[in-house]
Amino acid sequence: MVNDNKTKILQVKDLKTYFFTENGIVKAVDGVDFEIYQGETLGLVGESGCGKSVTAFSIVKLLDYPGKTVGGQVFFRGEDLLKKTEKKMRQIRGKEISLIFQEPMTSLNPVFTIGFQITEALTVHYKISKSKAQEKAVQLLEKVGIPIPEQRINEYPHQLSGGMRQRAMIAMALACDPTLLIADEPTTSLDVTIQAQILELMKTLLKEFNSSLIMITHDLGVIAEIADRIAVMYAGKIVEYTDTRSIFYNPLHPYTYGLLTSIPRLDLDIEKLDSIPGLVPDPLHFPEGCKFHPRCPFATAKCRKEEPVLKEVENKHMVRCWHFEKVKEEAKKIAFTGRLAVSE
Amino acid sequence: MNRIIKKLLSNTTSLIGLILLFVFVIIAIFAPIIAPPLFSDPYQIPRMSWDTEPQPPGFPISDDMIFVYESMGEPITRDKAIFGTAQGGYDIFYGLIWGTRTAFRIGIVTVVFSMLIGVILGSIAAYFGGWLDELLMRITDIFLSIPFLVAAMVLTTILGRGLDKVMIALVFFGWMGYARVIRGSILCAKEDVYVMAARALGVKDYSIIVRHLLPNTIFPVMVQASMNIGSMVITAAALSFLGVGAPLGYADWGQMVSFARNWIIGSPGNAGEYWYAVFFPGIFIVLFVLSWNLVGDTLRDIMDPRLRGEL
């Protein structure tokens, strides 16, 4: 599924974003590499606090003090965004790269109608008349599946349901036909049926607009629905990076493996659901060696001392683990032969 | 907005405040009819006599004055002082009626300008944060540590006598409260996702502050402003009372009280002899300030979600 023949939209190289707090430096994102091609969806998966949202905000340079991107490059259509001025970035944000947020409840301004907020997205970047923008906003709302858009456009966020609001958010994000969308857990605060609708909607719209998407989530079910490739993050680093199929059928990192075994499954008769022992390590005091070793069932003395590097071990399958072969075998034993949540 | 108006009208205290305010507005608007001016400058209080002592309510215009006005070619439209005269024969009734306009002007102009300064500085400090916030807020602290009345007095003295100078002084030392209030609300509101969403759309900082943050945060400032209109009028009156306010004979409530300064206590055995000289200007100021405070209080109650009973 890797699109070698398609144009590369975004390439993130060795991105490092640190938070300079009073208690010390928090390495929230510590050397992240990935790329994304036109029309492709990349899933960024990981637990809370693993740095996935910070990665997203670093790309569009929306991080506030005390967060700071200290190293790396973010090539967007061949130009390094990290070298761009705030003014140039403003022209890119919303027009070339749009964001969709987690909380549709709070990401719309309560004092304005949704029509106003969508037209604002348009008038910020294009010189168009108010009536034209209004017209476009109605079309957008129609496109995201909001019934009677002519009427909804004059309603305030509190008059809409959560799903409707997220649809309005998507309409805002798509207003200027962005090349790249970054969605930060867009379905987390919605209930499951609405989640499915929103994902379906995003899929169709991506195809229609031929936009790329970075989907940030902790929900493997969501990512299986929508992503072409997946990068699994742990403690500020990518630990496994390959296409969606391989993540689910051939996990090579113990963390990915742990995440997969902790999904409830209908096809297996298991009494107790597996979980990954322990917690995400304190970002101020990451363990030495492999950052996952305190929670890893495969950890050896080597893992405690030396940190593995992310390397391609199978065709287009990158993993950051000393013992990926053991993980592979273990995963086979559990037999991921049954159908997983992957819908293909 | 409709809800606010409805609440303001359904609450007894605020209704009293609104009615009082309405009466003052009527007085201010119809001042030329209620108290027809004698001079081309209507804010100049006409004198009813040359007496140094205050004269009781109903005091008729003296023959000397009739002669003066006639020789000036001014028609005499007032034959007696309904509320009496202050020292120097100034007509108290006339001064109070036209002073209502002055009070509105002082209150609204000073509050609007100090609010503007406070909101601009406070929102810049809160939105950008960092050293700019530190700098602006320390400046605010310095201004707050200066005693308001003394500072205003000194500045008015430096600038010279006159109502406009008083207003400049009041604005100059009166913006800090607004800056602090708006800074607090914006610090809180800027963490909301919609601000991040607006930034992610490429909206400029200026538009984010003006279009997204201020509509969500301005209300506490408005409440404070409505309460401050009263206190600004009091301070202006105090400055006039101390002799650094409006020029002599200008229709201003502070000036009217100032005229009464030597007559607060009457002659021995008759302490209340000149009661009208203090009472009428005093009651105007009290009612005016009270009306703004009542309205402001209710506005605060409406907007405070803890008192609103909706949380």
Strand portion of chain A, in percent?
Answer: 15-25%
Overall structural class of chain A, as computed from helix and strand content, comes to alpha/beta
Low-confidence stretches of chain A: 337-344
Helix content of chain A: 25-40%
- Report, as a whole number of angstroms, the end-to-end distance of chain A: 12 Å
Largest sheet of chain B: 2 strands, antiparallel
Could you tell me how far the N terminus lies from the C terminus of chain B, measured between alpha carbons in angstroms? 19 Å
Order of the strands making up the biggest sheet of chain B = 1-2
Can you walk me through this structure?
The complex is a heterodimer of chains A (344) and B (311). Chain A has twelve helices and twelve strands. Chain A is of the alpha/beta class. In chain A, helix 3 (114-125) packs across helix 4 (130-143). The longest helix of chain A is centred in the middle third of the chain and has 18 residues, at 192-209. With 311 residues, chain B is mainly α. Chain B is built from 15 helices and two strands. In chain B, helix 2 (12-29) crosses helix 5, helix 6 (130-145) packs antiparallel against helix 9 (176-189) and helix 7 (148-159) crosses helix 8. Chain B is elongated, with a radius of gyration of 23 Å. The interface between A and B is medium-sized, with 28 and 19 residues.
Summarize the structure.
The complex is a heterodimer of chains A (344) and B (311). Chain A is 33% helix and 23% strand.
Describe the structure using short key phrases:
heterodimer, A: 344 residues, alpha/beta, eight-stranded mixed sheet, four-stranded antiparallel sheet, 12 helices, 12 strands, 33% helix, B: 311 residues, mainly alpha, two-stranded antiparallel ribbon, 69% helix
